[in-house]
Structures are given as structure tokens and as C-alpha cells.
Design a protein that fits this description.
Layout: E1 6-10, E2 21-23, E3 28-32, E4 39-43, E5 52-54, E6 57-61, E7 64-67, E8 74-77, E9 80-84, E10 87-90, E11 94-99, E12 103-107, E13 109-113, E14 118-123, E15 127-130, E16 133-135, E17 139-142, E18 147-150, E19 154-155, E20 159-161, E21 167-170, E22 173-175, E23 187-192, E24 195-200, E25 207-211, E26 214-218, H1 244-259
Parallel strand pairs: 1-4, 2-5, 3-6, 4-7, 5-8, 6-9, 7-10, 8-11, 9-12, 10-13, 11-14, 12-15, 13-16, 14-17, 15-18, 16-19, 17-20, 18-21, 19-22
Antiparallel strand pairs: 22-24, 23-24, 25-26
Length: about 260
């Protein structure tokens, strides 16, 4: 329990991972800031370090976490990371790296970074899910078998696949760039001011086409997969009906059957 306290530590000379806190494999730790205002700051980080590095399980609830190493504020290698109601900041390299089969969930998280520093970087088979929050730094997957799922949130920098090999699935959120190529089936992108919002892809079509002996009404058609709402969509509807003589015979037969009951 941080309880409003601040922690500052230099990790430059610490061997191995070089982080302030190393959550060992098999360990489960919860870091909570109930009082609010707590800041954990890593000073003089090196190329392998972060404020927290997770091999086990880390649950972060509240607080601000500042990293100066390549691995940023909180990174996870093969473990489980859950971050909620917290702020992460990185001044060198990345804010958070999720790698080596690790699983991370970010909810109501604010991610900030110095100029030229990436935000959340999912690589080497890492898996990250973003449920909500504000991301003022890039959010990327990198490398085959790395996955990123975005359910909601505000993304003021680029989001998606860094090298075209990772997997990114988006079903909600507001983005600085058009993310149509990452949108899952049943969703679409529509402009909102200078940004792009991912929404349920439902197109309401009300039209009545009259043919000989029949009337066809189209209503609430669903758009095709990954259709781009920024472009015009054309629907082609093919309707086949029986000739009027056949329809009349069928109607007479139905009526005759009804009269005998």
C-alpha cells in the first residue's frame, strides 16, 4: 500500500533486470495507492531496466509510475500484469514492454511519454488488452504471435502493427489515425472531428422495391466486414420472384384450402 507516499530509486548499477522492483516468477504482488498522489520514480535506468519488471503476477491499482530505462515504467516478461486507474510515464525507449508470452490488461490507464519514446510495445509473443484509458504515446505490436486487443480508450498517437507481423484487433475507441485495417468483423470506423471512432457497423436501409405480384422491404441490413465508413458503400440486392400467373395460382390454391377448413 503506497498510501500517498513517493518512492525514488536509482537502478543504473543494479545487475540483471536493473529495476526498482522485480516481481519474481511464481510471486503475486498488488501495488495500491488508496490515498492517491503516490509516485514511484526510477532514476538513471539502463538498457534492460524499468521501475517494475514482472515475471510473476503484478496488480497495479492507482498511482503514477515513472521509468527512465529502456523498459519504461512497468514491463512484463512471461508474467501477468493488470494495471487500472494508474498513470505510466517513460522517458527513454518505451513506457511498457509486454513480451515472452506475458499477458497484460490496461484499464482506465493514462500513458504518457517523452518526445520520441514509444508507449506500449507488445513483442515476442506478448499479449495485451486495452479496455479503456488515454494513451498519449504509441501502442504497437511487433513480431509474429504478438497480439493486441483494443476494446475502448482514446489514442492520440499511432496504434497497430509496427512491422506487419503482429495481430491487432480493435472493437472500440477514438483514434488519431484511421485504424480500419485492424477493426474486427461487425465494426467500422467513422470520422469524429479530427479523429476516428470505432463503432458497431450497422447500416439501416429502408427501401421498398415493387415487382409484379410481390413487395420486398429491406430494413436493418448489416454492413460487410471491415467496411470503411469514410468511403461510399454500394449494396446490390438481387430479388427473384415468380411470374404473376404463378403467384395468382398459388394464392388461389391457398384461398381454396382455407375455404374448406
Amino acid at each position: 500500500e503506497l498510501n500517498g507516499k513517493n518512492i525514488t530509486a536509482s537502478t543504473y548499477s543494479i545487475p540483471n533486470y536493473g529495476s526498482i522492483f522485480l516481481i519474481a516468477e511464481g510471486a503475486t504482488v498488488t501495488v495500491q495507492d488508496s490515498a492517491g498522489g503516490s509516485v514511484v520514480t526510477q532514476k538513471y535506468g539502463n538498457t534492460t531496466s524499468s521501475a517494475f519488471y514482472v515475471l510473476g503476477t503484478l496488480n497495479v491499482k492507482g498511482g503514477k509510475y515513472v521509468g527512465s530505462g529502456l523498459y519504461g515504467a512497468i514491463s512484463c516478461g512471461g508474467g501477468i500484469l493488470n494495471v487500472s486507474d494508474a498513470e505510466l510515464y517513460g522517458s527513454y525507449g518505451n513506457v511498457s514492454i509486454i513480451e515472452d508470452g506475458a499477458t497484460a490488461v490496461f484499464e482506465n490507464t493514462v500513458v504518457n511519454a517523452a518526445e520520441g519514446v514509444d508507449g506500449i510495445w507488445v513483442q515476442n509473443g506478448g499479449h495485451a488488452t486495452i479496455k479503456s484509458g488515454t494513451y498519449n504515446a504509441t501502442v504497437y505490436t511487433h513480431g509474429k504471435s504478438s497480439t493486441l486487443v483494443i476494446e475502448n480508450g482514446i489514442f492520440n498517437k499511432a496504434a497497430g502493427n509496427n512491422d506487419g507481423k503482429g495481430s491487432t484487433d480493435i472493437s472500440g475507441g477514438l483514434f488519431a489515425e484511421n485504424v480500419s485495417k485492424y477493426v474486427v468483423s461487425g465494426y467500422a470506423v467513422k470520422p469524429e472531428g479530427n479523429m476516428f471512432r470505432v463503432v458497431k457497423a450497422e447500416a439501416k436501409v429502408i427501401d421498398t422495391a415493387k415487382t409484379t405480384g410481390a413487395e420486398i422491404t429491406l430494413n436493418n441490413l448489416e454492413k460487410h466486414e471491415k467496411i470503411n465508413a469514410l468511403e461510399d458503400a454500394t449494396y446490390q440486392v438481387v430479388v427473384k420472384t415468380s411470374p404473376k400467373t404463378d403467384a395468382d395460382k398459388a394464392n388461389e390454391a391457398i384461398k381454396a384450402g382455407a375455404d374448406t377448413n
